[in-house]
Predict the structure.
Amino acid sequence: MARVVVDVMPKQEILDPQGQAVAGALPRLGFEGVTSVRQGKHFELEVDDDVDDETLERIAETLLANPVIEDWTVRRVTVESADGSVAGAV
Amino acid sequence: MARVVVDVMPKQEILDPQGQAVAGALPRLGFEGVTSVRQGKHFELEVDDDVDDETLERIAETLLANPVIEDWTVRRVTVESADGSVAGAV
Amino acid sequence: MTSTDLTGQQTAAPVDTVDHAAATPGLPQPYRELGLKDDEYQRIRAILGRRPTDAELAMYSVMWSEHCSYKSSKVHLRYFGETTTEEMRAGMLAGIGENAGVVDIGDGWAVTFKVESHNHPSYVEPYQGAATGVGGIVRDILAMGARPVAVADPLRFGPADAPDTRRVLPGVVAGVGGYGNCLGLPNIGGEVVFDETYAGNPLVNALCIGSMRVEDLHLAHASGVGNKVILFGARTGLDGIGGVSVLASDSFSGDETGSGRKKLPSVQVGDPFTEKVLIECCLELFRDRLVVGIQDLGGAGLSCATSELASAGDGGMRVELDRVPLRASGMTPAEILSSESQERMCAVVRPEDVDAFLRVCAKWDVTATVIGEVTEVSEEEAARGGRLKITWHGETVVDCPPRTVAHEGPVYQRPVERPADQDELIADTTEALARPSGPEELRETVLRMISSPNLASRAWVTDQYDRYVRGNTVLAQPADSGMIRIDETTGRGVAVATDCNGRYCRLDPYTGAQLALAEAYRNVAAGGATPAAVTNCLNFGSPEDPGVMWQFEQAVRGLADGCRELGIPVTGGNVSFYNQTGSTAILPTPVVGVLGVIDDVRRRVPTGFGTEPGETLLLLGETRDEFDGSEWARVAHGHLGGVPPRVDLGRERLLAEVVIAGSRDGMLSAAHDLSEGGLAQAVVESALAGQTGCRVVLPEGADPFVWLFSESAGRMLVAVPRSEELRFTDMCRARGLPATKVGVVDPESNAVEIQGVATFGLDELRTAWEGTLPALFG
Amino acid sequence: MRVGVITFPGTLDDVDAARAVTTAGAEAVPLWHGDADLRGVDAVIVPGGFSYGDYLRCGAIARFAPVMGEVVTAARGGMPVLGICNGFQILCEAGLLPGALVRNSGLHFVCRDQWLRVENTTSAWTTRYDRGAEILVPLKSGEGRYVADEATLDRLEGEGRVAFRYVGENRNGALRDIAGITDERGRVLGLMPHPEHAIDALTGPSDDGLGMFLSLLDTVVTA
Ligand SMILES: Nc1ncnc2c1ncn2[C@@H]1O[C@H](COP(=O)(O)OP(=O)(O)O)[C@@H](O)[C@H]1O
Ligand SMILES: [Mg+2]
């Protein structure tokens, strides 16, 4: 069993109104110093050990992301720290 | 300038209909071996160097995540590889 | 008992079985943490003849809660039944006590409707709270065998400019829309009201209407020994368990070292897609006649569904709890019974139909599991309401008379006392408040009123709701009532409106409730439909406060007496108590929903002017100097005191009859009822809705301030085509309904001219009326 | 003439699409997402709604349904296909139309009566309209903002494949005010607003949408 993380982000040239809304809200809440925010999706998959990288790439490309508007990264996650945060390694 | 990544996920005990929908679709597309999928949000922030960890934590907690139903992790990203994938370090 | 950590690792501990409970009578139980009083706990022990198991304790505590048992309101709600005459009952196919009331609307159609509150969850998590509120009421309607066909959402929030309102309102609206839109249910009405007493206590009420052929009515009962109990829909998870998680915590597991479950958030997340599929699946099951009885799983989850189904049937019920499909591992029987996971239903099915039932579920990809069956009971057990036995891996964890869980909870006669400050409040009238005088001040008052948060356009909210889906919406926002076509061939349809002015109710809850009823009734009639039935959602503060109980009692009496006078029955409703912060309760808010019937929706009456080339404006009813509790008193002076407008239900009835007759005979081209903001508000709204100007000429000697802003009840503004004017005014005269000519519609004009007061461009009015909510909420 | 109307789990406007087809005088044939079978229809409508809850991305899961394989093949062979709202999203995800539909720029779901300008009167679905005519139909979507790269947009414009444009307010922020586009042959139309909700002024803002279904009739009958 392995954990795989796929992050999907809107392409740079595509307007990201959600990220912009967050960026716009920060100063109103008193948070300064954040110059840009982009928002995308984060997937955590539990996969059998026999699922290879190529399959994972195809899953990301055909289903999890829409290549017309999004970029993505796939990482297998090896370590899970106690607080649930993951330190990744590709 | 630093890049900060915040990943926000539905809490374990909270229903994740989006993840379920993806998990349900995979076998129909011929992808076997994925036993669970959870879907959350991925934020990439560009922040000034003087923004400290505590502030980032507060930003995540008050704006990016909804602590009632979501967990989150905050990481400063130090390396960015060419293909846009990020190798993280907390 | 079994305790589990959040990742689902099981730590071995025995389950608390009935035998174990009998053997350990002295084991301390966390009943107080579960909200039970000492005497309530003792009653459970007396019923069972032993201490309850953890699972039983979970069931009783949640079913005996205020929300499920109506323990404080029951003695008062009986009054609705007592005041319903046989004549009123005639068109009712099911009434109070069922999941929702059902009304025969003719042409072989029945319609069911109900409002429910989801107030507190929507404060904690606005999006999900509101979303699951919609989901819950839709399942209630579905459980009657009806297809849900429309929703509405009466909402109340703290001050419009309060920071917390900016958190709550957008989330609630997005949640109502997110869920309802995805279900494909047109949103055809509701309310948005701001008042500081709702800060910290927003009211999120949701209404759903369903339609069915009369012969398809399904009632919740588990009859027929040997019939199977099938749980279908979403899996059961840890969401919404809240308080029951104390049963798994360290101190009560008898194992000091065990890792107890930390207290879980009591928030549920909705999955509208699953609900949409569940609806279609249920409707196919009904169509194929595969269902004997059905119950939705709402608050109190399986505890409620199993005990209600079992106690309504003619036998007992046995449930194998370990068969319930779970989403989380290591859940205990108590948790499974109290989980409020959404999008689940429970059906009773004849054994020979089980395969067909499961096939339909499979077609819709809906998980369905046989979890038990209807059992034979002894005569003695039958007399006690049957027997509910729930097992967990073969061991009995619940064994009780289900009626004691579902229907024989505690009933309180709470102290009732008219608040000491009520007289002072009534004495503080608006008489001394400075009124605008002269054209300049009146002009400014019109603009200030129409742009105030409670009177401004609701488009920011309603534009987030799909009102077109299903293609049967004939009237929706902005209109006095929402109206949908039920029968595409005959054009038969229904209309619905919800209303309540909490300020009036604060001044006089009896009259206030009648005014709420009168307004909803009038709103339905304004569209041309005949009011037929009433539902309500009674939102109040703490029942432990005798002053709140007085408000409650008065409101119930006012509403019930009013319904009798109007001749329309209350078919169902919902009570929400404890809406208060500290010792400050919300304004008493008995939201009243009225359902009307129209034989042909093509004769609906719209709100907007200008559908006919020449129209005369008539004001029906009488205008008095009535400003206590008015929106003007709030906007201009922040004032609340005095007595609410006079209510005359006989007059409301006459007004409705005249308007409906006018609609039937094609004498009306527009109608808009007068309520908050008075005539000025109605004229502006109708002009903007029709994008047509008009000239208002008040009668000789009329005080323009009173005529423009008074909130006298029993009035409606109608536009009558020139050619029909005489016929219509003759009818009013013959029937004794005052009708005053107050102006003419001018299709050529882009302005509302109030003669002798001011002229407003339609653009100016639109900007003032539409700008407020977007400026506040983005 | 027979027009297929697809139902996916979560489809909402299939009844309305079928009603519009019937009102125009054709026969509506229900098509089920799980059947790889078009039942011999002459044209297909992919209606609006929230197929698979619109989880992940609108239309992302629906496009893999067995029936969609048949639709793609038939469309490539010239069968008229109309995707409305969620249907438009599905056709984009399936690659029958270029570009994508993303979250409204205002971040809210928008339901309103929307004026559209007819830009193309030669496609299978638009012959009944006059070029430049303005029609009033409901728009109701949360992810209706049409996007594509500049080159694609230029190509769409150049080839006359922008079929409808928003007039007045463009509430979702669609690039170049695009409300609907066609494929190269003008047989496949994807449209964000809902013509099927504008076939009768009783239940919609107008009956302007009926023209699309009548156009199809002309197209198929003269074919
Ligand atoms: N939360 C809401 N959801 C849907 N429709 C709403 C909502 N709030 C208000 N509306 C609609 O907006 C219109 C104006 O509301 P309101 O002024 O409260 O009506 P009235 O005074 O006639 O009761 C009505 O059509 C009403 O149904
Ligand atoms: Mg009204």
The radius of gyration of chain C is 27 Å. The pocket of adenosine-5'-diphosphate (ligand 1) is lined by residues C 152-153, 155, 187, 189-192, 458, 461-462, 465, 477-480, 499, 523, 673, 675 (CB under 6 Å). The interface with chain D takes residues 174, 177-178, 181-184, 271-274, 276-277, 280, 364-365, 462-474, 485, 601-602 of chain C (CB under 8 Å).
